[in-house]
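User: Sequence for Alpha-1,3-glucosyltransferase below. Tokens please.
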Amino acid sequence: MTSGLVQEYSHAVLPSISPVTTFVLTMLATLPALLWLAKNPTKPQFLCSVTLCAFSSFLFGWHVHEKAIIMVTLPLTLIALSYPIFAPVSFLLYCTALLSLFPLFTGPFEGVLKLVLTIFSILLALCIHQIPGR
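Assistant: Structure tokens for Alpha-1,3-glucosyltransferase:
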């Protein structure tokens, strides 16, 4: 059963999962990243571990909102700026995260604003990821 601003909802097809189950799944999913970081604590591996832990929390969290993907997008962008091999993944996640936030903007003015900001931010991200010599 889940509850929100509008209603309480019992799943018809999917099983109801308890917060304890999601906590255990999240801990199990983050454990490899934490062990990897403990074994070799460097700045790049710290950023990778933060990204993997945030992604695990997003995937297995009990009460996750669209905005939670930003916790994954920010550290992955920092990694992509240092290691260009991660740039395509970072760009794909960035675009997906941006589009997933669209339902939060519902007004007519916000529709124009999100279109302009989306075009600008995607062009900016493309320019950043195309910088030669990175």
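The chain has a mean pLDDT of 84.
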